[in-house]
Specification:
It is a single chain. The protein is α+β, with helices and mostly antiparallel strands. The chain is built from 24 helices and 17 strands. The chain has three domains: 9-206, Aldehyde Ferredoxin Oxidoreductase,  A, domain 1, CATH 3.60.9.10; 245-415, Aldehyde Ferredoxin Oxidoreductase Protein, subunit A, domain 2 (Orthogonal Bundle); 433-587, Aldehyde Ferredoxin Oxidoreductase Protein, subunit A, domain 3, CATH 1.10.599. Strands 2-1-6-3-4-5 form a six-stranded mixed sheet. A six-stranded mixed sheet has the order 8-7-12-9-10-11. A hairpin with a 2-residue loop joins strand 16 and strand 17 (432-433). The radius of gyration is 23 Å and the shape is globular. The two termini are 28 Å apart. The mean pLDDT is 96.
Length: 588
């Protein structure tokens, strides 16, 4: 590490005792780079094994990397905790300004333990830590309003980050999210519920720390290489122009767009909610994360009459991307774009994960249509696909949990199905709700063996699409080998806190040169070994907390609905899981 670089400093905050201190953890940053690698080690060090995810013994870790604030697209903050949704590894990445803000305070990681006896928020400002009363913020309907109030209280406009929870986190929804900078999130696996269980409403971070570089000439060369690749890349241009919402058209064309709880792989009204249509009719602006030249964040503007007054309108700005369109659009059979965008806004207001919410509501709808649950369970709501008004009401009920059914649904579809039935069409993998790709066996093996059961773990959907384009076939063994190789490399990228959209830009050669600027000189073999070690540490934690491949289930629905890639059955996927189980345990 470069002289005077503060990346190895870790801030520890004890909410119970209202104490904080700083330790130099060069041992972790020199071995695991930063981000994901440092976070998993800090999680292992500070957790009480076997604890309830909503107990004070569950720590919350935030970590950034040595390239954060130095190079473009090194813009993610990695959060780690024990997940209230899955019961094992909780890992979520958020863009926006949070990573640069944490780096600018002079820390590489933050460890938050314990529980405050009353609602608070933490202010971290140029090394000064304050615990501020949040009684008046607790229970507010809108997460947006909470952010607005804290912005008035905290200095550092244009530099600070405000990470806050909504009512979903307060009421313990197992997939509650954390919002930062209004349109970015720690979305998956329940970080919001962990903060809520600690009576921690928000974390406000700002600082003016400078970051040294060892070789200014090399720094400029590498910076220009990364910047030029980002602004001239056709892939990055795609993210800027339509964003991931463009995936709707592609997946519809190949029959891989999950529709009505995956009863189909195509949606007859996909053109009404696709990326191009939304952009033409509703796109209001584009935003970018800090230190990113791309601008892939797409914001739609919708207008509603204000108090029935003619010519008076209330404008609402709503972020959108493919995963939201899938989960709260095609998966629910919604063809009305305004209705869909209002659902996006509703999950934002209460700050719960859009994917888990959408999959839970799709499962609920099929359960209701089959007569497996009734209006008594749903607190009077009659569910049917396409009814966005009912879904909007249901989102609030997931947050408030007025019946036993909603209490169960707030813990995820795996938990709800274990009580009410319908496991054969409960679309979760490792207890995490399914992402929006029904491309074939690689995506489902990817969800199942990925350390956080996300499409972003290893991009199995991309491997399926290669098989479709090239008309090739893969065995379960070859798929798992390729998925694990990809996931190990992604540990390096998330250790550097690189946006995965930029994975084609940050090649091994670029990573090595960028690390050299940061004062870290690694060989290619050493970097690959770091990725392998981080991956192994994640699974060491998962097994410690009770994860087992033997307990993994595949919903029958994925075999019943035709996918565009090669034909597969449960034995095919089970063979892949058995092989992954052995291969991972050999790493430990």
């Amino acid at each position: 590490m470069n002289k005077n670089d503060t990346i190895s400093k870790v801030l520890y905050i004890d909410l119970t005792k209202k104490k904080h201190w700083v330790e130099d953890r060069s041992d972790l940053f020199s071995k695991y780079i930063g981000g994901t690698g440092v976070a998993i080690k800090l999680l292992q060090e500070n957790i009480v094994s076997g604890c309830d995810p909503l107990a004070p013994d569950n720590p919350l870790i935030l970590a950034v990397g040595p390239l954060t604030g130095v190079f473009p697209l090194a813009s993610k903050t990695v959060a780690m905790f024990k997940s209230p949704l899955t019961g094992d590894l909780g890992e979520s990445h958020a863009g926006g300004r949070s990573a640069v803000a944490i780096r600018s305070t002079g820390y590489g990681a933050i460890v938050i333990t314990g529980k405050s006896p009353y609602p608070i928020y933490i202010s971290i400002k140029n090394g000064k830590i304050s615990f501020k009363n949040a009684y008046t913020l607790w229970g507010m309907r809108s997460c947006f309003q909470v952010g607005a109030i804290i912005r008035e209280q905290e200095e550092g406009s244009g530099e600070r980050a405000i990470m806050r929870i909504g009512k979903g986190g307060e009421t313990g929804v197992a997939y509650a999210a954390v919002t930062t900078e209004t349109y970015r999130h720690f979305g998956r696996l329940g970080m919001g519920a962990v903060m809520g269980s600690k009576n921690l409403k928000a974390i406000a971070v700002s600082g003016k720390n400078t970051i040294p570089v060892s070789d200014k000439k090399l720094y400029k060369e590498v910076y220009d290489e990364i910047y030029n690749a980002a602004v001239n890349s056709e892939v990055m241009k795609k993210y800027h122009d339509l964003g991931t919402a463009g995936n709707v058209k592609t997946l519809q064309m190949i029959g891989a767009l999950p529709t009505r709880n995956l009863q189909s792989g195509t949606f007859e009204d996909s053109d009404k909610i696709g990326g191009r249509k939304i952009a033409e009719d509703y796109l209001g602006r584009r935003l970018a994360c800090a230190h990113c030249p791309v601008g892939c964040i797409h914001i739609a503007t919708i207008r509603d009459p204000y108090n029935d007054e003619p010519y008076f309108y209330k404008s609402t700005q709503v972020g959108y991307d493919f995963e939201l369109i899938y989960a709260l659009g095609s998966s629910l059979g919604i063809s009305d774009p305004i209705g869909m965008l209002k659902l996006f806004d509703e999950v934002e207001v209460y700050c719960i994960d859009a994917m888990s919410t959408g999959v839970s509501l799709a499962w609920t709808t099929e359960m209701f249509e089959r007569g497996l649950i009734t209006k008594e369970d749903t607190d009077g709501l009659e569910f049917k696909f396409g009814d966005h008004e009912t879904y909007k009401k249901a989102i609030l009920k997931i947050v408030d949990q007025p019946t036993d059914f909603y209490k169960a649904l707030a813990k995820g579809t795996n938990h709800a199905a274990s009580i009410y039935g319908g496991e054969e069409f409960s679309l979760n993998f490792g207890k995490n709700e399914m992402p929006g790709y029904h491309t074939g066996p690689a995506c489902y093996l990817g969800y199942s063996i990925g350390a956080r059961h996300s499409h972003l773990c290893n991009a199995g959907y991309a491997l399926d699409q290669k098989m479709i384009v090239n008309d090739t076939k893969e065995t379960p063994i070859s798929i798992v080998d390729k998925l694990m190789e990809e996931e190990m490399w992604r540990q390096v990228l998330s250790g550097l806190t690189i946006c995965f959209f930029a994975r084609g830009i940050y090649s091994m050669d670029v990573v090595r040169k960028a690390l050299k600027v940061a004062g870290m000189d690694f060989t290619e073999e050493e970097i690959n070994n770091i990725g392998k070690e981080i991956y192994a540490e994640k699974y060491r934690f998962k097994f410690q907390e009770g994860f087992s491949f033997d307990n993994q289930k595949f919903p029958k629905r994925i075999f019943e609905t035709k996918s565009p890639s090669l034909k597969f059955d449960e034995k095919y996927l089970r063979d892949g899981l058995d092989y992954a189980d052995k291969k991972i345990k050999d790493l430990l």
